[in-house]
Amino acid sequence: MQQITAPELADWLADEARPSPFLLDVRENWEYETCHIAGSTLMPMNTIPARIDDLDEEAAIVCICHHGARSMQVAAFLEHNGFGKVINLTGGVHAWAVQVDSTMPKY
């Protein structure tokens, strides 16, 4: 699995010449409601096995959580199930709030 930093992801999302990745937020509803990266899709970690068919195996998927641990587990699960372009956001939304968007709430 690949890793990406918050600034690297911000650059990717800002690059109109590059197709945007699917942003998969695996946190709980209340966490997502507190803060999230624009354009991300909420799919709590415990729902991934039942919803795996909702994901595109060919798409670049960036897994996101609070600090990067849960998303790393989901990324490993997706890789194990045949997804080839899985990327973990190192440091999660906390890193995004600290390094990219200082207006994002932290928790």
TrEMBL record:
Rhodanese domain span: 17-105
Keyword Transferase: yes
InterPro entries xref list: GlpE_sulfurtransferase, Rhodanese-like_dom, Rhodanese-like_dom_sf
Superkingdom of the organism of origin: Bacteria
Keywords, in A-Z order: Transferase
Molecular-function GO terms, alphabetical: transferase activity
PANTHER family for this protein: FAD-DEPENDENT OXIDOREDUCTASE, SULFURTRANSFERASE YTWF-RELATED
Protein name, per record: Sulfurtransferase
Provenance organism: Pseudoduganella rivuli
Lineage per the UniProt record: Bacteria, Pseudomonadati, Pseudomonadota, Betaproteobacteria, Burkholderiales
